[in-house]
Design brief:
mainly alpha, Growth Hormone, Chain: A, 14 helices
């Protein structure tokens, strides 16, 4: 057996032991990264919504929709030029540095640089989490089937536990530090995540490469076809339905998040009040998602399958929105937001990824890019445009439950269309072999 001279300890590791060692390091990196995400989101929200930031939310949503494509293009360019390992570590450290810079200039309210930071957090962390999960996929590419589900489950649990830890830490220290200090704590956790991934790449990959003699070479080219050819995929019924589901699901998600922020934002609150509010919220959200993922999702999918599981989120949102429409309370709207985020990360995302499996392999990547990369952004942009139009004639003196009731009715309508479109996916999903569906493999919620 030969090995990397700089990583002699890996040369004696068995292939199965190498999979465990690699996944453990990747899991720790994911844990720290999701903890950093929760710390950063809590600090961002506590500052942004202290004053008038909620009035800038539609602009932030529009910025997210517009910049999502360029952010992904930058990430792909870095990976092609420097390779995934270097790009992964460099991007993570770059975001940590950016957070330190924002920590130095962060102020309460919705000034343009705070709106920019509000936009950058989901965009950058979405790319970073995708790259971290790509590392896991590289390490486990040839793992035996009996190990694959177990190791991916460990990775998924580590990611969710990181979110819980980040929210719990923000709540524990929020009474003793400034809200903007959470950005610095998030940067420290990101630096730790970069270090963990660097160790995984350097010390585990050489050992694992010895267990990959059957890996096929990558296809020639490796680039996506022209946009016109990609859009041609939408001429077929199933990819078109997936794209429409992506659009209306995104519209629903943006409206739910906006009505939640609108109901809890208090311009007179202090940053520490907001830290406690959002830390408690994210703690509850991540805890609920973790419990549903571990206890509820596997038996649910065994009973109703992928298609039935895809009906859970839109159905629950219709019911929750109807309750919020009747009560119009901040508690009901917060509950709707918890249901949306918790069910999306614990049940919906895993089954949504499996909804692409009935497609031919040649069309799967193009369809996923169009649906998750284009259609979802179209939905977010449409929702942002609706909100911007409403705010252009908004009278702050008329703020109250009645002034935003139309948002609840609109998201109910969007969720009903989403549910109806998902029902039309039934023939294709029912004809797909259940053996290929993997409810025991949590996938990242980007």
């Amino acid at each position: 057996m030969t090995g990397n001279p700089g990583a002699s300890c890996d040369t004696t590791i068995s292939p199965r032991g190498g999979f465990f060692a690699g996944s453990a390091k990747a899991a720790f990196g994911l844990f720290l990264m999701t903890a950093a995400f929760m710390l950063t989101k809590t600090g961002r929200d506590a500052l942004y919504f202290q004053r008038d930031g909620f009035l800038q939310l539609p602009k932030a949503y529009l910025g997210i929709a517009i910049l999502a494509g360029p952010a992904a293009a930058v990430a792909l360019t870095l990976m092609r030029r420097f390779g995934p390992p270097r790009a992964r570590v460099a991007a993570t450290l770059g975001m940590a540095v950016a957070q330190i810079l924002f920590f130095a200039v962060a102020r309460p309210g919705g000034e343009w640089w705070m709106t920019l930071f509000f936009v950058l957090v989901p965009l950058c962390y979405g790319v970073l989490l995708a790259q971290a999960w790509l590392l896991a996929a590289e390490l486990l590419e040839t793992a035996p089937r009996d190990l694959l589900a177990r190791l991916y489950s460990t990775l998924g649990a580590s990611s969710m536990l990181g979110g819980l830890a980040g929210a719990a830490l923000a709540r524990a220290i929020g009474d003793y530090i400034e809200a903007r200090a959470l950005l610095a704590f998030g940067a420290i956790a990101l630096a730790g995540s970069a270090a963990a991934m660097a160790v995984a790449q350097r010390r585990v990959d050489p050992g694992l490469s010895l267990a990959r003699p059957e890996v096929a070479p990558p296809p020639a080219g490796g680039r996506y076809p022209p946009l016109k050819e990609m859009l041609g995929v939408l001429r077929h019924r199933y990819p078109l339905l997936l794209a429409l589901v992506g659009i209306f699901g995104s519209i629903t998600g943006v409206l739910i998040e906006f009505q939640f922020y609108w109901s809890v934002a208090d311009p007179a609150s202090t940053p520490r009040d907001n830290v406690a509010l959002f830390a408690n919220f994210y703690l509850l959200l991540n805890g609920a998602a973790f419990l549903v993922q571990i206890l509820g999702m596997p038996p649910l999918q065994r009973r109703v399958g992928v298609w039935g599981s895809l009906l859970v989120l839109p159905g629950a949102l219709i019911g929750g929105a109807a309750v919020a429409a009747v009560s119009a309370s901040a508690f009901a709207r917060a509950g709707l937001r918890i249901a949306e985020s918790g069910l999306k990360s614990s049940i919906h995302r895993v089954n949504w990824e499996q909804a692409y499996l009935p497609l031919e392999r040649s069309a799967r990547a193009m369809t996923k890019l169009l649906v998750d990369g284009v259609a979802a952004r179209v939905g977010e942009g449409a929702a942002a445009g609706i909100l911007l139009f409403w705010l252009s004639g908004f009278d702050p003196g008329a703020a109250g439950s009645q002034s935003t009731r139309w948002i609840i009715y609109t998201l109910i309508g969007a969720a009903m269309v989403w549910l109806a479109l998902t029902l039309k996916l039934a023939p294709d999903l029912h004809s797909f072999s259940r053996e290929e569906a993997r409810p025991d493999i949590p996938l990242p919620d980007g």
